[in-house]
## 1
Amino acid sequence: MKLCLATKNPGKLKELIKIAEEFGRDVSGLELVLAPAEFNPEETGKTFLENAIIKATEAAKLSGLTAVADDSGLCVDALDGRPGVLSARYAEGDDAKGRAKLLAELKDIPTEKRTAAFVCAMALVEPNGNIVFQVQKDWKGSIGVSERGTNGFGYDPIFIPDGLTITSAEMPTDDKNRISHRGQAWREVLASMESKNL
C-alpha cells in the first residue's frame, strides 16, 4: 500500500520508517511518500488533533492516496498549557529561541511545578475525506533549568521524561522512539492499519 505522509520533510519520513521497522511492523508492503510540492495547509485548528486532520485531509486530497499526518508540541502546566499548538512558532527565529523563551518564563518556577508533556496527535484520512483513524498520545515529564544533549530537536534538550534524569536529547534514538509521544501514536496508527487490512 502507498501511504502519503502529510509533510514535505524527508527527515520525518525516515524517522517514521525507522520506528515502524524497529517495532515489529512489516513495512515491506507499505510505501511511504511525501506530500506533493503544493501541500501547504493552514494549521488553523485549536487542538493538535484538529491540525492533524487538516493536514491529513489536504495531503490525501492532493495526492489521491490515504494520508497520515501528525501534529505535536509541548504543553507546560505552569504556563497553562503553552506553548501547545504554537510550539513550532513560539518565538521568532529557530528552535533555540523557543527554548530560551520557555526557560526565561519558567525561571522562578520551582522544580516540582515544572511538569509538562509532549503531545502528538495523528490522523489517517482517505482521499474522499473519510477519517479512518485518529489518536493522541502524551509523553509526560518536566522542564529542566538548562539545555542538555544534542540528540534531538525542538524542546528535546530541556525536556526530562518522567522516571529519568536525562533530557530527551540525551537519550539514544531507539530508547526515545520506544516511549516518545510520536512513537506511541505512530505504532497505534500502524496497528489500526493492520487490523483494517490497509
## 2
Amino acid sequence: MNLARMLRKRAEENRPVRVGVIGAGKFGSMFIAQARTTTGLHLAGVADLSGERARAALERTGWDMSAQIAKDFDAGRKTGGTVITEDADALIASGLDVLIDITGSPAAAIRHALKAFDHGSHVVNVTVEADVLAGPVLAARARKKGLVYALAYGDQPALVCEMVDWAEAAGFRIVSAGKGTKYMPGYERSTPETVWTHYGITAEAAAKGGMNPQMFNSFIDGTKSAIEMAAISNATGLNAPRDGLAFPPCNANELNRVLVPRAAGGVLDEPGLVEVVASQARDGKELPQHLRWGVYVVFEPGSEGVSSAYTRRCFSEYGLASDPEGRYAALYRPYHFVGLELGISVAAAALRKEATGVADAFRSDVVATAKKALKPGDVLDGEGGYCVYGKLMRAEDSLAIRGLPIGLAHKIKLVRPVAEGTPVSFDDVEIAEDDIVRIRREMERDFAAPARRTAAE
C-alpha cells in the first residue's frame, strides 16, 4: 500500500524506475498512456517490429513527440526521453530496471525474458502464452539472479492471484477462483472467418478498427480463457477441472451458489478449482450483473466446528452474501483495467522485489485440440486460428498423452490424422527441438507436480 510513496521517493532522488516495453499494440498503448503520468517512472524505450506503430502508440496516448522522444538511450538517460526502436535487443541491453514483454509471441517472450535476466532486469510478462509454456523455468532463472519474473497486473490472471493470496493470507480456504467471459457451447469451433458474428459486428467494421480476427477469436473459442486459468493454477496451486473448463452461466450474485462442489448444489467436481463463468445464459441472453470483464474468488472458513460457525456468522453480520447454509462466500471485481494497471507490476518488481503472480510449478497445461478433422500435411495455425483451440488440462493428464501445448502449435505440420475434438500430441506433428522446445522439456522434467491440492487440504 505504499508503492506511490516509494515511486515519489525515487523521483525525488532523481533515479526513476527505468522500464522498457516490447510490443506497441493495445495493451502496450494503455500502459504507455499511464507511464506518461506516473511519478517516479521513466519509460526508457518502446520496441516494436514496426517503429511507426511504436511512434503511433506514443502519439495517440499524448506524448510530446518533439520534447519527450530521445534519439538514443544515452540521450534518454540525460533528458528523461523515450527511445523508439525496432531493435528489442538494444532496448533490453540499455540498462532497464524492468522489461515488459507484450509481443503475444511465446517464443519471442521467452527469449526476451532470458536476455533481460542476463542484463539484470526484472521481467513483467504480459504474454501469458509464454508463462503457460515455460513460466516455472523463467521464474527459476530469475530467482537465481536475484530478479523478479511476474504476471502482469491489470490482466486477469494476476488479479485473480492477488485475490487468492488475500483469501489465504486471511485464513480462508479457496473453493474456486477465475474470471468471466463471453461464451456459448460451440464457440470452440469458431474461426477467424466466423468470429465477428459472435461479437455482433461486421468484418469490415472490425478491419477499420484494426482488430485482429485471430487474436479476437482466441477469446471467443475459449483458448485465451484456458491459458489464463492455467497461469492462475500454476501460480496458486489451484487445480484445473479434470474435463476442462465448463463455462457455467453465472452472474456475480450466484458465485457462492454455483462455483461450489456438486455436493453443495454447485457445478464443481471438487473444491479448489479454477473456472470461467459465462456472461450469457444458454439461450444466449446476457445475464444481469455478469462478470464478462471481471474476476472472482469463492472461499469458506478455514476451520471447522466453533471457529467455522463464528466465521459464518461474521459473513452474515457484515453483509457478505453467502449460500443458504452460510458456508461459502465470494469476492469479485467486475472489471479489469488491462494495461492501465500494469504499472503496479513494474513498481512491485522494482521497489519491493515482489511478483504480482508467479508460477511455482507445472500443474496445468493448455493442449492444442482439433476444431475439425485434421489430416497429415495440414499446418497448424496456432491460437485463435482455423485448426485448433486450447483445452485446459491437468499437467499429469497432458504429460500422459504427450499433449502439444497451444503455445507451440503455430506453423507445425501434422504427420498423423487427428479427429475433431481430439487433443493433438507431440507424436502427431513434425517439430524441431529448438531452444523453446528444450525449455518446455525442462519444465516438464523439473517442475511437473500432480495437481492434488483441494480446499480441504
## 3
Amino acid sequence: MTDTLAPDTFRLVEDAQLRGILDIHIDDMLEYVHSGLRDLPGYLELYDRYLRQRWNVNELDFTRDRTDWTEAMTEDERASFLAIASGFHHGERQVEIELPIFMVGCDEDHKIFISSQIEDEARHVVFFDRFYREVVGLEGDIMGTLDASYQWISETFVGPFGLLAYQAEELRRNPFDERARVRYATNYFLWIEGVLALAVMKITLGYARRRGFLPAYYTGFTATARDEARHVQGGMRFLRDAVDRDPTMLNEIFDTLRTILLMSSTTSRLVYFEPLGLTRDAVLEMLITQLNRKLVTVGFDLPDDIRGMVQMISPQLAGG
C-alpha cells in the first residue's frame, strides 16, 4: 500500500490531525493518493478511513491569511489564485448536490462510502465559503459568495463540470444504467478529481508553501487533498470493477476521455499560472502525468488515438 511513499511518511499523512497537516508537504499528500491504487481498498475500508480523517473546518483561523492576501500578495498573484480557487469553490458545491444521484445505483457498501464523500464535499464548500468571505472579502451567504466568485472561473473547469451536469441528468432518469454510471465516474472520479483537481491543487498549495503564505488555506486545502485520496481510490475501484465485470466498459471510459480532451484542446480564456510559479506547459504536464498514472496503475492502457489528442493539447507531452 505504501509503494509510492516511505512507510513513515505514509503514516504521517494517513494519521495527521488538522493542525499537523500544515507540516505535510503537498507533494507527499499527492503521492498518498496513489498509494492505494495498485491494491484498491474496499468501500467500507475507505469509510473507516473517512471516520478517522474527518476534520472540522471551523477550527481554521484565517486571520493570518487575510493579512497575507491584502498586504503580501501582488495583484497578479491574487488574480491567478482566484482563477484557480473559484473552480474548486463551484465544483465542490456542484458535486455536493449531484453525487446523491450517482449513489442511488450503488450497492450498499458503496452507498455508505458515497454518503461520506457527500459530507466531505459539503465541508469543502464551507471551507471555500470561509476563505472567500474572511480572506478575499466577499459578502453574503453561501450562495452569495458562490455567485460573486463565478466571475473568476476558467473554461478548464467549466467544460468538465458542464459535461458532468449532463451526465447527472442522464443518471437521474435511469440511475441503474451501468454504462451511464461508468461515463459519469470517468468524468468525475478519474478526470475531475483524479486528474484536474490533483494537478491544480499543486499550484495554489505549492505557491502557499514556497512563500509561507495562507496557513489556514494550506491546512484546509491539503486536508481536502487527503479527502480526495479516498474519493479517487473509491472511484477507480468502481471503474476497475465495472471493467472486470464487462470489458466493453473500457469503451465508455475512453469515449468519455475523448470528449474531455476535445473540450480541453480549445479555450478562449487562458489562466496565467506564472504569478504562482508555474508555466502553462508545466500544468499540462501535471495533468497528463496524473491521467497516465491513474490508468496504468489500475491496468488500463491508453489507446493511441487518445495519446494523439494529448499531443494536440501539448506536443512535448506526446507519449505521456
